[in-house]
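Exercise 7.
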Amino acid sequence: MKPNIIFIVIDSLRADKCHGEKKTSVTPNIDSLIENGTYFNQTITHGQSTIPCMSSILTSLYPFESMSQNEDIFVINPKAETYIENLEEFGYESHALVQESLSHMGLDKIFRKNFEMYPVTLKTWTGLDKKIIQRIESFSKTDPWFYYIHLYDLYIPFNQQDVKKVNNLDGLYPGDTTYDRMLSAIDVSIGKILENVDQEKTLVVITADHGHEKGAFTESMENIHQENRKVRKHEPGVGFKIGQKIAHKFPKSMLPVRKKLAEKYTSKADEEIKEKVKPEIEKIENSELRPYEKRLMKNAIAPTAHIYDDRVHVPLILSGYNVPTKKLITQQVQSVDIFPTIAGIIGLISTNYGRRGHSLVPLLKNGTIEEFPAFLESATNSKRSSDSNVIGIRTSMHKYFRDRHEKTKNIHLYDLKNDPLEEHNLYEKNNELVEKMEKIIEKILQSKSLEHTESKNLSKEEMKKARAVLSKLGYI
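Solution. The predicted structure, written as tokens, is:
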């Protein structure tokens, strides 16, 4: 018998907010899944935003291998084989439900006719769970199904109106912050959804694409973050709009010129925004806050893509079919391991050739596997996102990262055991360890290029819509 698979991605869920002492949300359903299943408390994802991370998870490749670039927007590489294809070949009917803000990333090409979107205005606490349950009720009762659900509530609220709505629900959804209360709300919906599946015959997987520093924000930091969204907003002038209309009429031979003009404008707009927030950033830098607090505050004012553990340490819960109960695995594992593990649990073999992940089934069966270093990159959803532009390696003991293209630039090395908040850069005193980490990076890259392949699978209208959504969500 092949089990059904329900695969829930809670966008931006940090590991420390799902399980552990820092958790202030109340999540009896998530807690029950952990109690009656297996929890991996040191799961590391490979990017810091949705498209890189989900490209990596679905293909079991690293972001630089699994994404392609469509002008200034990144998408899942249409040429990369995904595990969804493997599941369908194995007899599964695949389905997906994602928020419309992710419509451009390429999941519609993967799930085809069974791809469904829900509006930004629909939340877990306003009826999204009912929509999911209705969909599950429509699935085949004889053939196995795979259902990918992407919950986006933790990333939003992205405006003050939504913040007020959530904070007015304090009595229903407990937690110290908006983020924690939203997780409490999501948990209620997860409970309702799982009431409608036979968990003994269903493999339940809950994880996150990436974490988020918002989970560590105080209420005052969250308010600063929301206020500075307005400051960072850049409205193009009349001159730009006229110029854009003219540029769109250029013949194909003039496309390189149009591209350069767009890049010049974007660069100018970015510089203007940096100048706007510069006084606040300098004030924080000169304050007596701890390095970690400074980093949080600066990200509240002007978010920049990074690979600190706030973003890359995510939860991973397996429960239900063929999964041992009451099991906590502390060994470092990776997001690229998720689908090879699903394949191992359900008996799907010969699907990982040439991929990066490893099955975690031996750990489920009290065996051992080698702990593999996790490759990290500050990959974003768009070329226009503010990016620290770094790559690195994480082990259970250390985090190393440096400039994406120059290995002697922007070097960081942290002792994760003694400095979990990554406040004290030790690279100058640890040349031997830096060299060791650099060799791991070189082995991973080998002859592969960090430059993304180009694709043209988005129309002009889709590109325009994608840019508008990414702008609204604060990515660009």
